[in-house]
Design brief:
This protein is α/β, with parallel strands linked by helices. The protein has 20 helices and 21 strands.
C-alpha cells in the first residue's frame, strides 16, 4: 500500500511517501524551487518522490492532505465577521488566493497531479500528532502538538495507544503560544514563520525583565490552559501582529536591520522565559491526565530546542521524543501515517530510522556535473582515505562543505548536507557565520559521538540520544574551552548525537577525535543566508565557489578552493 502525503499553502510545503506503513521518501518543496519556506503546491517534490520510488501516480493507493481547507476557510471567514470592519483589507487580499488554489486542493490533486483514487483530508494537529507518535519507538505515549494555528486548534493534547491517537483537550485560535512567540519575532524585526530560531538565539544575551509585562498579554492557568488578551494583538484583523496597546507596553518595535539594543535582547529573553513557563505547565497537566512517562511532541513550538532541553528538569516525563521536522514540513508525513493507522486501521508500525529521506546522486551524476562546470577535482581512493583527509582538514582549522547520501528532511542538517568545522577556538564561530552570511549572535550546533555525549554535555541520561538536533544542553565546564565555537552565550549547545548506524559521518567524527581528543565537530546546514539547504551537487558547488569554504566533499570527490584557480593544492600534503 502506497500513501502519498502532501502539505501546502502555509509554509514549508512538502511531500512524503509511505509503503506498507514504512517511510520511504520525504522532502520539502523549497529544496527544488530554491525558495526558502516555499508554500506553493509541491509539484516538484511529488515528481521527485515518484521518480525516486520508481512508481507512477496510478500506483498510489491514497493521497493524504495535512489539513481540512474548508474548515480553515470557515475559521478565516468567521474571524473576518468578528473583527469587521477592521479586517476588511486583509480579508479581501486573501480571498483571491483562497478562491484561486487554497480551497481547490482536491482539484489540484485530481487535475494537475492526475490522481484518481481516494483523498483523505487529515486535521492539521492530528497530522502533527501522527508525525511524532507513529515515528517514535513508543506504543503508548502522551502527545502534545503546539504551533501557531491549524484549522482552529493551536494546542492539543492526546493519548497514543498502539495504532490509535485519541484527543484529550485543545485550545483554539486566537489564543496561541506560537502566535505569541511570532508576535515578538516580528516586533524585534525578524520574519514570522522564518526567524523564530533567531529570537531563541538572541534570548541568551538578555535578561527576562519583561516577564511581568508579558503576563498582561496572556492569562495562564495552573493547568496550562491560557487565553491571549486580544487588546494587545491585531493579527486577526490587520497585517500587523501587535496593537498600539502592545507598543505602549513594550516600546517601539525594532526596525529590520537595526542594531540590537539591550531592550531588544531583554524582550527576547522574556518571551523565551514565558514560552517555557506555558510549555511546562501544559506538559505537567498532560502527565497528570495520562500518567505516561513517555511524551511525543510536534508542531512549530517543538522546534524551540532551548525549551526542549529543560523538559526533563521541569516535568515528570522521562522518555521524550520530538519529531525532527516538527513544523509544517513534517505534516505531509504525519498525514500519510495518520491515514495508514488511524483511518485504514493498520497495526503494523515501524519507527523511523532517520531523516535522510530525500534525493541522492550517484558518483556518475556528480562527476558529470563537475566536468560540466570544468572544475578541477580529485577522487578519494576509498572511504578510509576520505575519512583520514577530511578529519585532517578539520583538525587544521579548515571549513568543509559536506555532501553525502540522501538529503535530510526538515530544517536541520544532520550530516548529509552540512558545512563542517572544528568546534574551537571561539573565532571559528565567527568565521563560519561569515561564510554563511549570518548574524554574529547566532550559535552553531555540535555533532557528538553517542558514546561521548554524557562526557561533554549535561544530558539527563547517560546515553541520551538526540539524533535530530532538537535539544540544547549545558556544556560541561571542563569542555567549554575545547568547544568554544559551539558554546552559546548561556553556556548551552544544540546537540546532535551520532552513532555507528550513521556510517561515514560517525567514522569522520571518530577520526577527528583520534586526532584532536575531541569527539565532536561543528555542524551547520549547507546553505547561505536566505537559501534553503542545498539539494543537488550543482547547488553545493555554487555555494562553495562564492564563499570562503576551504574544501568541498561530494560523495567520493573533493575539490579545494585554490584548485578552482588552477593552483596546486596544499591539501595533498
Amino acid at each position: 500500500m502506497y500513501i502519498l502525503g502532501i502539505n501546502a499553502f502555509y509554509h514549508d510545503s512538502a511531500t512524503a511517501l509511505i509503503k506498507d506503513g514504512e517511510v520511504v521518501w520525504a522532502a520539502e518543496e523549497e529544496r527544488f524551487t530554491r525558495i526558502k519556506h516555499d508554500n506553493t503546491f509541491p509539484f516538484k517534490a511529488i515528481k521527485y518522490c515518484l521518480e525516486s520510488a520508481n512508481i507512477g501516480i496510478a500506483d498510489i493507493d491514497f493521497v493524504a492532505y495535512y489539513e481540512k481547507p474548508l474548515l480553515k476557510f470557515e475559521r478565516i471567514f468567521q474571524t473576518f465577521i468578528e473583527t469587521y470592519p477592521f479586517s476588511l483589507r486583509p480579508f479581501f487580499k486573501s480571498i483571491p488566493e483562497w478562491l484561486g488554489q487554497k480551497i481547490k486542493v482536491e482539484w489540484l490533486i485530481r487535475e494537475k497531479v492526475g490522481f484518481r483514487g481516494k483523498i483523505f483530508f487529515v486535521p492539521h494537529h492530528l497530522s502533527h500528532a501522527a508525525a511524532s507518535f507513529y515515528t517514535s519507538d513508543f506504543r503508548r505515549s502522551a502527545i502534545l502538538t503546539l504551533d501557531g494555528v491549524g484549522e482552529y486548534e493551536t494546542c492539543a493534547i492526546w493519548q497514543g495507544n498502539n495504532n490509535k491517537i485519541a484527543p484529550l483537550k485543545s485550545i483554539n485560535f486566537p489564543s496561541s503560544l506560537g502566535l505569541l512567540y511570532s508576535t515578538f519575532t516580528a516586533f524585534l524585526g525578524f520574519r514570522v514563520n522564518n526567524d523564530e530560531y533567531k529570537l531563541m538565539g538572541l534570548a541568551a544575551y538578555g535578561k527576562p525583565s519583561y516577564v511581568d509585562k508579558i503576563h498582561k498579554t496572556i492569562d495562564l492557568k495552573e493547568d496550562g490552559s491560557f487565553r491571549l488578551n486580544m487588546e494587545y494583538f491585531s493579527f486577526r484583523q490587520s497585517f500587523s501582529m501587535w496593537s498600539t496597546k502592545f507598543e505602549k507596553l513594550f516600546g517601539s518595535p525594532r526596525k529590520t536591520g537595526a542594531i540590537f539594543n539591550q531592550r531588544h535582547k531583554d524582550l527576547a529573553a522574556s518571551i523565551q522565559r514565558v514560552t517555557e513557563e506555558v510549555y511546562f505547565k501544559i506538559l505537567k497537566q498532560l502527565f497528570l491526565l495520562t500518567k505516561s512517562r513517555n511524551i511525543c511532541i510536534s508542531g512549530g513550538v517543538a522546534l524551540n530546542a532551548l525549551a526542549n532541553g529543560k523538559i526533563f528538569d521541569n516535568t515528570s516525563f522521562k522518555n521524550v521524543y520530538i519529531f525532527g521536522p516538527a513544523g509544517d514540513g513534517g505534516t505531509a508525513l504525519g498525514a500519510a501515517l495518520a491515514t495508514y493507522h488511524q483511518i485504514e486501521g493498520k497495526t503494523k508500525r515501524k519507527s523511523l530510522a532517520g531523516l535522510c529521506l530525500g534525493t541522492s546522486y550517484s558518483q556518475e551524476e556528480i562527476e558529470e556535473e563537475l566536468n560540466k562546470e570544468k572544475i578541477k577535482y580529485q577522487k578519494f581512493a576509498g572511504e578510509d582515505e576520505l575519512v583520514k583527509k577530511v578529519s585532517a582538514w578539520l583538525a587544521r582549522g579548515k571549513v568543509v562543505g559536506w555532501f553525502q547520501g540522501k538529503m535530510e528532511l526538515g530544517p536541520r542538517a544532520l550530516g548529509a548536507r552540512s558545512i563542517l568545522a572544528r568546534p574551537y577556538p571561539r573565532v571559528m564561530k565567527d568565521r563560519v557565520n561569515e561564510i554563511k552570511k549570518r548574524e554574529p549572535f547566532r550559535p552553531f550546533a555540535g555533532s557528538v559521538l553517542q558514546e561521548k555525549v554524557n562526557t561533554l554535555f549535561a544530558v539527563p541520561q547517560k546515553n541520551f540520544s538526540a539524533p535530530y538536533m532538537n535539544y540544547c544542553f549545558e556544556v560541561r565546564a571542563k569542555w567549554q574551552g575545547k568547544l568554544a565555537a559551539i558554546v552559546h552565550k548561556d553556556t548551552t549547545c544544540r546537540i546532535q548525537t551520532v552513532n555507528r548506524s550513521d556510517g561515514l559521518y560517525y567514522k569522520l567524527i571518530r577520526s577527528f577525535w583520534a586526532r584532536t581528543g575531541i569527539p565532536c565537530i561543528l555542524n551547520t546546514s549547507f546553505n547561505l543566508a536566505g537559501e534553503p539547504i542545498v539539494e543537488s551537487p550543482a547547488q553545493a558547488i555554487a555555494d562553495f565557489v562564492k564563499t570562503k569554504m576551504d574544501f568541498l566533499v561530494l560523495e567520493n570527490f573533493w575539490l579545494a578552493k585554490n584548485y578552482l584557480h588552477g593552483k596546486k593544492s596544499l591539501a595533498t600534503k
